[in-house]
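User: Assemble these into one structure.

Assistant: Restating your components, then the assembled model:
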Amino acid sequence: MKRRNFTKLALGLSLGASLMGTSAMAQDNMRIALVVKALGIGFFEAAHKGAEEAAAELGNVEIIYTGPTDTTAEGQIEVINSLIAQGVDAIAVSSNDTDALVPTLKKAMQRGITVISWDSGVAEEGRQMHLNPSSNPLIGNMIIKLAADHLPDGGQVALLSATTTSTNQNIWIEEMNKVMANYPGIEVVSTVYGDDLADKSYREAQGLMQSYPDLDAIIAPTSVGIVAAAQAVEDAGKIGEVNVTGLGLPSEMAGAIESGASKSFAIWNPIDLGYSAAMIAHALAAGEATAEPGAEISIGRMGTITLDETNSAAMADPFVYDSSNIDEFKSIF
Amino acid sequence: MLQRLITSREALLLGAIAVLLALISTRFPGFVTPSNLADVFNDTSPLILLAIGQMIVILTKCIDLSVAANLALTGMVVSMLNLAFPGLPVALILVVAITLGALMGMFNGILVWKLDIPPIVVTLGTMTIFRGIIFLISDGKWVNSHEMSPAFKAFPRFELLGLPMLSWTAILAVIVFTIVMSRTTLGRAAYAVGGNPHAATYTGIEVGRTQFWAFTISGALAGLTGYLWVSRYAVAYVDIAGGFELDVVAACVIGGISIAGGIGSVGGALLGALFLGVIKNALPVINVSPFWQLAISGGAIIIAVAVNARASRTKGRIILKSAEHAA
């Protein structure tokens, strides 16, 4: 009873302090709604698993896993309206539209509900903070690290990107170049573009192996490219000589890991993402942290995040998948 | 006779390919080794198969823009079939692919034949419809390498006399359709319909029916290529072979097939496809900036077409020159 009152008080204080109107909730358990793009998607089911893990760790937290049946902003607005009516304590949303959800989420915040976005963000005015799975510098570092980890004596690596104008690819490559000094002996011999087409990526990978007979690794930070490059390496009989790595999805890369064409690759871990989103939502709703630029929020086993000037934060390095964990994840996403 | 041989489209194109190969070998000598040339041919095989089908359609004054979408839909269907029934023999999958592709071609053909809708409109529509259907049946999901059965992936890679089955399929298609186009009524009818539709009608050839069969052949070849494509790249998703229809039409145009219909040959389609295939395979190895690659591809197409157009221009004789001067 005492504890309940304390929670109530803490909630009341935090809400009062942030001038967010009246307290609509204050039940036995803190109720955190995890709103996903659509139900039935393996990636989000895994995030749900992570959120439940956080709830178990925190105690007295109930996770409401919900979302529309198809990936529409309208569906999410309906879901969020019903969550507001239920008076949940916090909403953590992976949105289908940056702007369309803003009015509804503003309404939720006016009712004293903590609102954060994760994975796919909403505009700044529609949330208190946004959690990115990773950040460009972390990704840039990870892609070269993946290749370098298997090349202790150095070697030649080549990049297989999507299109020449693909913004995220170019930023990641730029960030990678910034940290090249940390990987002595690793030489990036070429950057080619597969245009995110399976056939062109395959041909470019073949070309790389012809032009650079001593090539040790192909880094493809694109899901179409990495799969095509792995197939090209397999067909050329160069498994073991050329390691294909980069960013890909476990379900799409399972074959390449199995054949050995790829030793490891990376992408966000949806379990960690759901876990962190629930941790942050709890911290904000319980008043343990405030969402303001520069604020540091502890996210349990994932460490601490720091909010930037747009109140967004990066969770962690992309998660590395290899033969030890691919079977667990290939059915998830 | 020699004069005719030298100025024939095919000979000119063959010369152009030889010059191209010579130029490439100055920058990357490994490109012209027999094993690499065999690889290039293998890589170009899907384009050759589609270009043959497209050639027949273009001969009859039509165009088929739905080939790449047909390929992608058939590829997705056979991949999902393989996923559901991994034990299905490859022979049956080939039959399903060809039949499904032919049905889609027939759908185009019926619309052109019976409803008299311009082919470019029909196939532009079916192109989008086919892509949409892929999304509907797959829910936007991929069929991945580890989900396909080993036999399903092995067929195009199976080597016979040093060449993979993918290449043999293209060679077989070239032989079969060379015979079809020159020795059968359907083949001759295609030329007649494209060359002079009115005259063809007077001789008892039904224009619409010939076009219908042309679309059916193009569809069947696209379906066959669909299976070969997904098994070769070991992945099937909505956007595979996106924009490939333009490569196919470009291969035909380079191969000297007249967009106005009636002029063209299987050999031309083959060489046109090879010309594009050599460029596509050479650009990654000759160390040209990717920003230039598209421009080079496009430039090569325009040059090839310009050469072709000049070569095919029939020289008219000016008669009554004196009368002109007098006037």
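Chain A is about 40% helix and 20% strand.
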